[in-house]
Design goal:
Strand content: under 5%
Largest sheet: none
Order of helices and strands: HHHHHHHHHHHHHHHHHHHH
């Protein structure tokens, strides 16, 4: 064997050991701090370690693209939100968002170009990535078996088979003389008594397979294409058999919709931006005004934005090809007209969103703040920024995948902001301030609808309540948080807002009473 072939064999063996070792370490970390553990800093720690391993594997493959690195950083930041929020809905969103970001980053490290990532690729990234990781892990396992059969891994395998039972035996013996070994032994005994060893092992195996596959894909990307690569989209002219719309059809559609929106705004300026609930004889309440506004205007805005994209998707008669000079000039004028109509429609949609935002603001002033109203406003802000991005695309030529990426960035930013910002406590403070101004206190919402994020704020305000409201609020909190598990006891289950909520309950001295639970629940949170 020549020196070159020996070096190549050693490098191959080193890469095999590296990805197996790193994948097993990451899986072991996840099984240790993540299995049946409450959300906390454990999510951020594991995501950071897994992302670092993926980046290192990619560095020895085709390299880490700036886009992939950015997605990995954002995934770590988003996963860190699990140590901040105690809202179950946001914890689920953090999990889904982190998984999607990691999956898209894997696509990019596998060789997919960032401009080829669109909505369909983002949505399907987690399941397709998981399938690709399982397949890659199978290939890596076959490589390991082949290496073992070739004799390279026989000594290591044999040593492990002999060493593992010996380690267990000596550990049991030493546990009789050392408190540290005794603690490990007792913890292991408790886990066995709870029958969690097998599920934890399955969890470790699943994490190991996915991590091994992801690292293998990143490492292999520099040598050969992998299954997660996404082919570039074909130009519109190459879409054989697809229905197309010319400039005339699109101009009519956009012009008609813009005309309807413009007429609607001109006829109802006072209705949209005024205060009909305060006008004598209007026959409309604040609730009707706000609900109609958001239900109609926001849906209309979303549909109009989607319409522009759909028309672009099926656009026909593009410039280029074999058209003569006159034909090209006519097409150019038609495309400019369509572009202007689309920009006009976007401007009208922006006005509709502004109106819908004002409606919700009026509703909050009249009836108080709720999480759903805040989320509606957040959606409208993101939608408004997305319209700016859409207008930019229309002006320079729409790239649907690029637009999808920008909107995804906006949505992810909003999710991160809401996760780290204790908006539930902010809502509670706003409603308490409103109570001090108006004397109207919604005890049922403060105690029954807000997440544990708001519990310290509500508990701290109880001394300011009247005797009856304070007693009811205390009873409702005791009923709701009876048996509530505020995080775990391990260091890796640390969660800032869970700890604050636990301290608030302890300061209140709530007595857990399970008698007549249904009757109490109905009395606390009845409409």
């Amino acid at each position: 064997m020549t020196s070159v072939s020996i070096a190549g064999a050693r490098a191959e063996r080193g890469a095999l050991v590296a990805i197996w070792g790193s994948a097993m370490l990451v899986a072991a970390l996840g099984a240790t701090i993540g299995f049946m553990a409450s959300p906390g800093i454990n999510w951020g720690i594991w995501t950071a370690v897994a992302a670092l391993g993926l980046a290192l594997a990619a560095r020895f493959g085709a390299g880490v693209t700036p886009e992939a690195a950015a997605l990995l950083v954002v995934a770590v930041i988003l996963a860190g939100g699990a140590a901040v929020t105690a809202n179950p809905v946001f914890l689920a969103l953090v999990l889904c968002g982190t998984t999607t970001l990691m999956a898209v980053a894997l696509r990019l490290t596998a060789g997919t170009r960032a401009e080829n990532v669109g909505l369909a690729q983002i949505i399907t990234a987690p399941p397709r990535g998981a399938i690709a990781c399982v397949g890659e892990a199978g290939r890596r396992a076959a490589e390991a078996i082949a290496a073992t059969r070739a004799g390279r891994g026989v000594p290591a395998a044999r040593g492990a088979v002999i060493a593992i039972p010996l380690v267990v035996i000596f550990a049991l013996l030493l546990s009789q003389a050392d408190p540290t070994f005794a603690l490990v032994r007792d913890d292991l005994a408790r886990e066995l008594s709870r029958i969690t060893l097998l599920p934890r092992a399955v969890f470790f195996l699943a994490l190991g397979v996915l991590t091994l596959g992801a690292y293998g894909i990143a490492l292999r990307a520099g040598d050969a294409p992998v299954t997660v690569a996404i082919p570039a989209a074909r130009p519109a002219a190459a879409r054989g058999g697809a229905a197309t719309l010319g400039v005339t059809e699109r101009a009519i559609v956009l012009g008609s919709v813009s005309g309807v929106f413009a007429l609607f705004l001109l006829l109802q300026v006072a209705y949209l931006f005024g205060d009909p609930g305060a006008a004598a004889g209007s026959g409309m309440t604040y609730a009707e005004y706000a609900r109609r506004g958001f239900g109609e205007l926001t849906v209309a805005a979303s549909m109009a934005s989607a319409l522009i994209l759909v028309l672009e998707r099926f656009a026909g008669g593009r410039l280029g090809g074999d058209a003569d000079g006159a034909g090209k000039g006519e097409l150019a004028r038609g495309e400019r007209l369509v572009r202007m109509l689309a920009l006009v429609l976007i401007a009208l949609v922006q006005l509709l969103l502004d109106s819908a935002y004002r409606r919700v603001t009026l509703y909050e002033q009249a009836y108080g703040f709720t999480a759903s109203r805040l989320y509606a406003q957040t959606y409208m802000i993101v939608m408004s920024l997305a319209l700016v991005a859409l207008g930019y695309e229309v002006w320079g030529g729409i790239d649907a995948r690029r637009l999808t990426r920008r909107v995804a960035v906006l949505g992810t930013g909003a999710l991160i902001a809401l996760t780290y910002w204790n908006h539930q406590a902010w809502i509670a403070r706003q409603n308490l301030a409103r109570w001090e101004r108006t004397g109207k206190l919604d005890v049922a919402y403060l105690t029954g609808s807000l997440s544990p994020d708001a519990l310290p704020t509500v508990a701290a305000a109880l001394p300011r309540f009247g005797a009856a409201d304070a007693a009811r609020a205390r009873a409702c909190l005791a009923l709701r948080y009876d048996g509530w598990r505020f995080g775990g006891d391990h260091w890796y289950e640390w969660n800032a807002r869970m700890r604050a909520a636990r301290r608030a309950v302890e300061r209140l001295g709530i007595e857990r009473d399970t008698r007549e639970r249904s009757a109490k629940r109905e009395a606390c949170w009845k409409a």
